[in-house]
Amino acid sequence: TGEAEAARAAMGGSASLLPREALGEYQELTFLSKQEILLAYKRFSELLPKEERENACSARVPKSQILTLPELRANPFQHRICRVFSTSGNGDDSMSFEDFLDMLSVFSDSATSDVKSHYAFRIFDFDDDGTLDRKDLEKLVNCLTGQGEESRLSHAEMEQLIQNILEESDIDKDGTINLSEFQHVVSRSPDFTRYSVLQ
């Protein structure tokens, strides 16, 4: 099977090596099974140039390569997803293997809705200030409706929609949505995780 091949390659085939102790640790720290972690390692290695595959555990994959993944290719929040999961210190949104695993773990069906909503909140928080304000909500709506002329909302429609979102979600009425308000709304919308940005 494909999984058995992935396991052989990742555990010490001719390609790169994922240390056995790391595998157990990754299993504890993510929502992924052993097979899924091995497959992730194989996928991550394949995003690297051949000469770097030996040391995939210490390599970083550039954002341009991450964006070729089928999970992200059609996702309107692809750039935000890279920003949120990347631990790169220089802002290039490149990913280490652990960043990549974190992302796949949150995308996984096994991730809890709390974890999914926490990351969705961070992805929607475009200015990274810890709250969703009107500007964040406008960008969020634009991402969801597309940037084409025919799908773009008028100023009045956008204002009305943002007003509706705030009325529904802004419990303390401070004009922004914080994480706990966001999670409260999500907990009342079981469809959120099904149609979520993190599928």
UniProtKB/TrEMBL annotation:
Superkingdom in the source lineage: Eukaryota
SMART domains: EFh (SM00054)
Pfam families: EF-hand_7 (PF13499)
Keywords assigned by UniProt, alphabetized: Calcium, Magnesium, Metal-binding, Repeat
InterPro entries: CIBP, EF-hand-dom_pair, EF_Hand_1_Ca_BS, EF_hand_dom
Keyword Ion transport listed: no
Gene3D superfamilies noted in UniProt: EF-hand (1.10.238.10)
Repeat listed as a keyword: yes
Domain EF-hand: 112-147, 157-192
One function term, GO molecular function aspect: calcium ion binding
Protein's recorded name: CIB1 protein
Gene field: Cib1
